[in-house]
Specification:
single chain, 148 residues, alpha+beta, Transcriptional Co-activator pc4, Chain A, 4-stranded antiparallel beta sheet, 2 helices, globular
């Protein structure tokens, strides 16, 4: 039986990093005290914002890994936008293939849910090279979705 993450060979690691240099999204795995949450940190040069991200209904983050695996299988290109959003909307991704790069629009938001003015939203654009870099991201996320 083929795994839904085919196209991504897994390797054991603790975090997944999307992007490079001073512009990236870092996903840290759930900790024992909060097993259904990961920490997403968006770094855009001198700006850094982090928010806990809730998994999708007990499936861990396999849907996120599957989102990138589908891009890995279509690395030569696709039409339109591909989107993924976390369960409670804390993290949203929109990917578009633009010839030589994949543009990944990342939205990170903290929702206050009645806690006053503690809400914020950060948006940034990351680029991913559809060859080796996308393969690495795909592998990292597949491992992230199945922590050792």
């Amino acid at each position: 039986m083929r795994d839904s993450l085919d196209g991504c060979n897994t390797r054991s690691m603790q975090q997944a990093r999307i992007g490079g240099g001073s512009r990236y999204l870092l996903l840290a795995p759930p900790n024992p005290g909060r097993p259904t949450q990961a920490l997403a940190t968006l770094v855009l040069g001198g700006l850094s914002a982090s928010v806990p991200v809730e998994e999708h209904y007990g499936g861990g983050f396999k849907d996120l890994a599957g989102f990138f695996a589908s891009m890995g299988r279509s690395w030569r290109g696709w039409r339109g936008r591909r989107t993924w959003e976390s369960l409670e909307g804390e993290l949203a991704l929109v990917a578009e293939h633009r010839g030589g790069v994949i543009e990944l629009n990342v939205t990170l938001q903290r929702q206050a849910f009645g806690r006053g003015s503690d809400e914020w939203t950060v948006r940034g654009l990351l680029t991913i090279e559809p060859g080796d870099e996308l393969t690495r991201v795909c592998q990292d996320l597949a491992a992230f979705a199945r922590p050792a």
